[in-house]
Amino acid sequence: MTQRFVVSLSRGPEDPDRATVAFTLANAAAGSEQETVVFLSSEGVRLAVEDAADAVAEKGFTPLKDLMGAFVEAGGKIYTCLPCFDKRALDAERLVPGAVIVGGPKLVAFMAAGAPSVSY
Q1: How much is the pLDDT for 15?
Q2: Please, which residues bridge with residue 49 across strands?
Q3: How far is residue 21's CA from residue 58's CA, in Å, rounded to a whole number?
Q4: Where does 1-120 have alpha helices with state H?
Q5: Can you give the residue ranges of every domain in the chain?
Q6: What share of the chain is helix, strand, coil (3-state, %, to 5)?
Q7: Is the pTM of this model over 0.90?
Q8: Are 80 and 96 in contact (CB under 8 A)?
């Protein structure tokens, strides 16, 4: 059985429902002893920047900033798509804890041995 799991998130603060559910599931995976990566692409890369998740709070869920912090604290990694980040001219000096900017090969290498994934 694989011990890896990927949550792919292409939505950011403009879609708080998907962003919140993605990190809720990522926390469940990390809490189930899966080596877990959240891959941020497209508008999702905005969440890798400090303060972007601060105001995101869906009714009935833990606030997104807290979900992201708990995920990283549990050992989760936040891979942030390099071309998507660059396209949006975001500030790499302001990454949230646990976020790293990566190219596609890094995600492929993580998944190559087998990793279930879900996308939001």
Answers
A1: 97
A2: 95
A3: 9
A4: 16-31, 64-73, 82-87, 104-111
A5: 4-119
A6: 40, 20, 35
A7: yes
A8: no
pLDDT in tens, 2-54: 699 999 999 999 999 999 999 999 999 999 999 999 999 999 999 999 999 99
Do the Cβ atoms of 118 and 23 come closer than 8 Å? Answer: no
What is the C-alpha separation between 50 and 52, in angstroms, rounded? 6
Q: What is the mean pLDDT of residues 82-90?
A: 98
Structure token digits, residue 89: 């001219």
Sheet architecture: strand order including 99-102 = 99-102, 77-81, 35-40, 4-9, 117-119
Strands 4-9 and 35-40: parallel
What CATH number is given for 4-119 in this structure?
A: 3.40.1260.10
Sequence letter at residue 101: I
